[in-house]
Amino acid sequence: MLYLVGLGLSDETDITVKGLEIVRKASRVYLEAYTSILLVDKVVLEKYYGREVIIADRELVESGSDEILNNAQNVDVAFLVVGDPFGATTHTDLVLRARDLQIPISTVPNASIMSAIGATGLQLYNFGQTVSMVFFTDTWKPASFYDRIRENRDIGLHTLVLLDIKVKEQSLENMARGRKIYEPPRYMTVGQCASQMLEIEQIKKEEGEGKDGVYSEESLAVGCARVGGKTEKFISGTLKQLCKMDEELGGPLHSLVLMGRRTHELESDYVREFAVDKQVWDTIWKRDYEGKQ
Amino acid sequence: MLYLVGLGLSDETDITVKGLEIVRKASRVYLEAYTSILLVDKVVLEKYYGREVIIADRELVESGSDEILNNAQNVDVAFLVVGDPFGATTHTDLVLRARDLQIPISTVPNASIMSAIGATGLQLYNFGQTVSMVFFTDTWKPASFYDRIRENRDIGLHTLVLLDIKVKEQSLENMARGRKIYEPPRYMTVGQCASQMLEIEQIKKEEGEGKDGVYSEESLAVGCARVGGKTEKFISGTLKQLCKMDEELGGPLHSLVLMGRRTHELESDYVREFAVDKQVWDTIWKRDYEGKQ
């Protein structure tokens, strides 16, 4: 059996009791470690589970799935995923390959950022599609998120923006020379995300594409850090304000919610508690959001 | 401290290790039992937790929150919620009241249907806003879901439809006479949901509102039963086909996903495995969905 086990969002005790029983009994345990991370190390997990955990990087999952699925017709293999097992596309691939090999599959769901984001006080019903933000380079600034956010904002919905992480990446030079030397991990911050969003808005405006724009420096948003963990932190404010709040938010992982105009007053009351500056918040709330259903 | 503890979706072992520790130590434990249910009884939970669990019905949460929050400044109160604690609006209310009383709050996230629905193979990124479907009566057929689905479909996204449950409801007669006698619980099925969706589409057409309609008998959808549980079951097909599949789907809880035209081929391959009739599926997929980005 192939077990896909969600680990939740924060530490070793966020696994479900059901999940833990599976991990303790399985023949092999893999930890998917490139689409998200827990806030604790592999050694902490190994100690807690009382057994070895094999790190499954992108290479192993995408090219070495035979190894992961080896003999899973006869023995139990646990594939651990931070958050919920179906949060990322990659694992659907793995399941399709297991199906082809007649391997039975069982899933143990867990908290995902896509539902835990409700801890901001914003209603899950008022979210549109989720988008991802990748690290821009000087020459590569993919902006497909912009049209998705436009679609959400046209109908007044919030947008959850998931932020890039770079784990076990090679520099171009090392890649070109085939050297398996990896850069230190990088986790995008709320400040980087807000800046990139504003950069794209500026570029689109110059191109004349989005005459009215999709959002602006004064759009209200919530910066989120370590959602679901003991040190969870939210800071709400304008996108411009959130460009400068990384220190207050603290370490990874971060995510961001851009609020839609359909925000209910109860949601606003809740989120206002986290405001960088309540006066600025109230002014913009009254001007751009309140009653704009 | 007020702890909001998510229980996940299926049975007593879906609680997280962190959640279980809190439940075992808390002074009082409440189980919110009217917006969703686990697939096991209160007695199973009590045995598993080794302690008493107080059922919190709508009346208690909405009018008796003082009782729930009583002395939570000094002792630990655990409020258990099926799924994730922030899935339903009610709990935001409770948190706001706790905040007013200076009660510290801590949340233990867990799987929610809003992320576990990824088990259908449909990508969470391709979902628009979630809608709810309530039981229609002869005189009350609320159709606000229809406009929300239209918004999702206009941009090609999937819609998760959450289905009504009626727990501890009084008949009109008993309510009028002030008799606290409750009807047996009712859980909406995929078939009832699909029928009600088609009924509203018909009414809207007759009213001439949605000239093109929002969906039809031949729209593709996935019927879902007991998502995240051991007896989880998916059946995919047209809305018309899904009107008749309740027996195959089995007991509660049910939910339904109406697919958007932006469905990726990988998603379709996955969902097709659950098709009532693969030939019908393929015909409609090719005609109405494939390549319609």
UniProtKB/TrEMBL annotation, chains A, B:
The cross-references to HAMAP family, in alphabetical order and at most eight, read: Diphthine_synth
Pfam (any one): TP_methylase
Keyword Methyltransferase present in the record's keywords: the answer is yes
Q: Can you name the source organism?
A: Oidiodendron maius (strain Zn)
Gene Ontology MF terms in the entry: diphthine methyl ester synthase activity
Q: Where is the Tetrapyrrole methylase domain?
A: 1-242
Q: What EC number(s) does this enzyme carry?
A: 2.1.1.314
Please describe what this protein does.
S-adenosyl-L-methionine-dependent methyltransferase that catalyzes four methylations of the modified target histidine residue in translation elongation factor 2 (EF-2), to form an intermediate called diphthine methyl ester. The four successive methylation reactions represent the second step of diphthamide biosynthesis.
Q: Which InterPro entries match?
A: 4pyrrol_Mease, 4pyrrol_Methylase_sf, 4pyrrole_Mease_sub1, 4pyrrole_Mease_sub2, Dphthn_synthase
Q: Where does S-adenosyl-L-methionine bind?
A: 9, 84, 87, 112-113, 163, 227, 254
The family line of this record is: Belongs to the diphthine synthase family.
Keywords (alphabetical) are: Methyltransferase, S-adenosyl-L-methionine, Transferase
Q: What class of enzyme is it?
A: transferase
Q: What name does the UniProt record give this protein?
A: Diphthine methyl ester synthase
Biochemical pathway: Protein modification; peptidyl-diphthamide biosynthesis
From the UniProt record, give one GO term of the biological process aspect: methylation
Please list the reactions this protein catalyses. Answer: 2-[(3S)-amino-3-carboxypropyl]-L-histidyl-[translation elongation factor 2] + 4 S-adenosyl-L-methionine = diphthine methyl ester-[translation elongation factor 2] + 4 S-adenosyl-L-homocysteine + 3 H(+)
